[in-house]
Design a protein that fits this description.
Layout (H helix, E strand, L loop, with lengths): L1 E9 L7 E10 L2 E7 H7 L4 E4 L4 E4 L1 E6 L19 H15 L2 H17 L2 E6 L10 H12 L2 E4 L9 H21 L4 E3 L1 E5 L5 H11 L6 E5 L3 H11 L3 H7 L8 E4 L5 H9 L3 E4 L1 H6 L7 H6 L3 E4 L8 H16 L8 H18 L14 E4 L12 H8 L5 E6 L2 E5 L2 E2 L4 H17 L2
Parallel strand pairs: 1-4, 1-5, 6-7, 7-8, 8-9, 10-11, 11-12, 12-13, 13-14
Antiparallel strand pairs: 1-2, 2-3, 5-15, 15-16, 16-17, 17-18
Helix pairs in contact: 3-4, 3-15, 5-6, 8-9, 12-13
This protein binds zinc ion.
């Protein structure tokens, strides 16, 4: 048994319980009790004690949309002509890089990105992977790496027609095999989803194939929806309908599906997403970086849609995503009153809901019975802090790298900023070597 205590416990449960001098008791992979440090220490006298030294004790963070494979783009200059729009960004950058990835690249981008997640306090990641010339075993490679790092992960391969039918079919096969493997594994540490790139790179024939495979699988889809305006224009021109309507026609929507971005959608599409209980993910930094616009998140939240928060490969720091999420909607709507409540709800409550739909376990709250994903975040508030203003303290006072200690599923994987599962220095050195080889292939 382990107690993490002597800190400010922020449970992020339904009551947003806040305990000034609190502690969390862990037995195996689960939390068994949350209370004051006196209560918990008195009750579990023999437990190992991890001293939070007055810092924050919080549930591990959840990132509902990430791209591990994008890691080796950092610092890369492809010397392509300047992008004129979102499709140019895909062609000049992402579809150039992913074609060159080998399984070794996948492995080392996995190590470095997932280590970065742990260092930023993220304990559950939903990844969306692409490596069209190294598809077979790519998801299994990422899952093996996640196991070594000690992080909880959902993996999928982004099925797309953009590299020909054989590659489309290989993508479908990898999704199917991985979903079957993960469902059999039943460990609550790894899950599979059916990845789709976006409707504009998928023919009716391919979507029919995917739907047929999904008939016998217990999983959701993970798909980019109306990220750029080109996706909407393509759908209207080629199929005579809007993006969400086309996804609905192939039975892609549903309570386990992640519909990512949703920028260029109208009121009827929002109704469809709500009726099908589909989960949405907003990635504010990525949207700003790609200059694709701003998703109507405030309207979606008003209508009761389940919108989560992700990073889309832009960063692994969810606090950074929260900060940008707080700004983009104010800026977009010219209304300084919005996003104060919506973005923390996306980050904590909705991401928690999304994760719990996939892992058959309570994730993202400190409460008895929930998985023991716990972080200690360094923070000494300069003003009074309580349950009513904790979101303001997190927004303005904390970032991902404030994380001191990370526990996943009851196991301490980082303690006082030192990774315990792997030799971080050695892995980053090897990662520079592997990425330099990748860069030499352009
Ligand atoms: Zn994405």
């Amino acid at each position: 048994m382990v107690i993490i205590g002597n800190g400010v416990v922020v449970t992020r449960d339904d009551n947003n319980t806040f305990i000034k001098n609190g502690a969390v008791a862990v037995d195996g992979s689960k939390i068994i009790e949350v209370g004051t440090v006196e209560e918990i220490k008195g009750k579990y006298k023999d437990a190992e004690f991890i001293d939070a030294k007055g810092n924050l004790i919080m549930p591990g963070l959840i990132n509902t949309h990430h791209h591990i494979y994008s890691a080796f783009a950092r610092g890369l200059n492809l010397n392509n002509p300047p992008a004129k729009g979102f499709i140019d960004i895909l062609e000049n950058m992402w579809w150039t890089i992913d074609k060159k990835l080998t399984l070794e690249d996948v492995k080392y981008s996995g190590y470095t990105t997932l280590i970065d997640c742990i260092k930023n306090g993220v304990t559950t990641v939903f990844d969306h992977h692409a490596s069209p010339y190294a598809i077979e075993n790519s998801l299994f490679t990422l899952a093996d790496v996640a196991k070594e790092v000690g992080i909880r992960g959902s993996f999928c391969y982004e099925t797309s027609d953009r590299d020909g039918e054989a590659i489309t079919d290989a993508g479908i096969k990898e999704n199917v095999e991985f979903i079957k493997y993960a469902n059999k594994e039943n460990s609550d540490m790894v899950k599979g989803m059916f990845g789709l790139h976006a409707q504009f790179t998928l023919s009716d024939k391919t979507l029919e194939k995917c739907a047929k495979e999904m008939e016998s699988l217990d999983a959701g889809y993970h798909v980019h929806t109306a990220e750029g305006i080109d996706d909407l224009h393509h759908c209207l021109k080629e199929h005579g309908k809007r993006v969400v309507e086309r996804l609905m026609d192939f039975d892609i929507l549903g309570e386990k599906t992640l519909s990512v971005h949703n920028l260029h959608i109208n009121s009827r599409e929002m109704d469809i997403l709500k009726e099908t209980k589909t989960n949405l993910v907003n990635n504010p930094e990525s949207n700003m970086g790609n200059a694709v616009g701003c998703a109507p998140v405030i309207e979606m939240m008003k209508r009761g849609l389940n919108v989560g928060l992700g990073t889309d490969g832009y960063t692994s720091d969810m606090f950074e995503s929260m900060k940008v999420g707080n700004l983009i909607h104010k800026h977009n709507l010219c209304d300084s009153n919005v996003a104060w409540g919506e973005v923390p709800k996306m980050f904590f409550e909705n991401n928690r809901d999304i994760a719990s739909r996939h892992f058959n376990a309570e994730i993202g709250a400190l409460k008895p019975g929930a998985v023991a994903d716990i972080i200690v975040v360094e923070y000494d508030p300069l003003t009074p802090m309580d349950a009513s203003n904790i979101n303001s303290h997190l927004l303005f006072g904390v970032n991902g790298k404030s994380t001191l200690t990370t526990m996943v599923n009851g196991k301490v994987v980082m303690k006082d900023r030192i990774l315990l599962t792997l030799d971080e220095k050695e892995i980053f050195e090897k990662s520079r070597e592997v990425s330099s080889k990748l860069w030499s292939r352009f």
